[in-house]
Amino acid sequence: MNHGSTWSDEKTERLIGNLLRAGVLASALIVLAGGVLYLVHEGRIHPDYGTFQGESAYLTSVNGVVSAALKLDSRGLMQLGLMLLVLTPIARVILAAYAFFREGDKTYVVVSLIVLAVLIYSLVGSG
Amino acid sequence: MNTLEFTLLVGLGSFLAGLLGALTGLGGGAVLVPLLALGFGVNIRYAMGASLVSVIATSSGAAAAYVREGYSNIRIGMFLEIATTIGALVGAYLATRISTPAIGTVFGLMLLYSAFVSGRNQPEHPVVRRPDPMAARLRMPGTYPTDEGPRSYNVASLASGFSLMFGAGTLSGLLGIGSGAVKVLALDQAMKLPFKVSTTTSNFMIGVTAAASAGIYLHRGFIAPGLAMPVMLGVLAGSLLGAKILLRARTQWLRRIFALVIIALGIQMIYKAFTGRL
Lengths: 127, 278
Description:
The complex is a heterodimer of chains A (127) and B (278).
Chain A: H1 7-42, H2 62-70, H3 74-103, H4 106-125
Helix pairs in contact in A: 1-3, 2-3, 3-4
Chain B: H1 3-24, H2 29-39, H3 44-69, H4 74-97, H5 100-118, H6 133-137, E1 142-146, E2 149-153, H7 158-175, H8 180-190, H9 195-219, H10 225-246, H11 252-274
Antiparallel strand pairs in B: 1-2
């Protein structure tokens, strides 16, 4: 948007906008589906979030969450939706890197890739 | 209270937080953690996990609209995200180490600061006396739409903006919030961006910053899906509705009331932290 003359700026804006909206919508629907299952199964139990024990191990890794969600485990599904939400801004950074590449703006391709590296480290490398 | 009742109440509270956050422009994230910790007796780390994912939802939801309108500056946002994401990693690691009362105290101070900032009057279009040559080399100056057509703006002190952004990222990771108040400080006080450009660019950056802490929060078990579910859905619905009615509402008095609520929550957080009841 700084340089309105280049073709890809407007297109990038539209793409980024749509991507963000679709990501949030999809994740909200998955969280909602998992939430309904969760309340049907566990709605009558008393919740306890008073002391911090850390979430069950299977819900703290990408692999664990995906395999639990595939078995239609309600917590796994909700966590999958939340993970998808976390991936939305990451996809946005990838898209921005691509757009800067198309514009031939090497500096900002590097900038975007640095940000991307930090995000990927957090998601897969920090465990 | 069983899980069904708990979920509905937390969902309703989060909805109101999201609605007020969007209407006042102060963000709902800051009040979520105190709401859960003080109101529902949720451990602060679970509260931070639920708050952080909700922050991503509202940022992405709102950014989708702002990006299209051409207010946010993607170059400035992306460049400063280097600082905020690295800061967020540092903050999230700190959050796994330092004590609950310490987190509570920092949180309370942050709330008081946000309320203080919300009372200031910002100029629509600040004057940049000395444009930063580094920012110009990085092609940061841009234009934004106004009633009289596109208006161009310059960028001051990139270095101080960058350092403030590192601090904003650290606070975001440490407290599970978007820390929009500090981001806006960096953009409009240090870098002298026009008000609309700084608020929308800040919002645009919040999601990416929060995503950088989210991985660590996930691995360390801060994100409890049963709790995060009503919080995220409630905040998202509330903030979307808030953004819709924002155009028609007069929000000045609402801002004042919400700022008072934030001050009260801040004082209570600090008090509970010091008396060991957090």
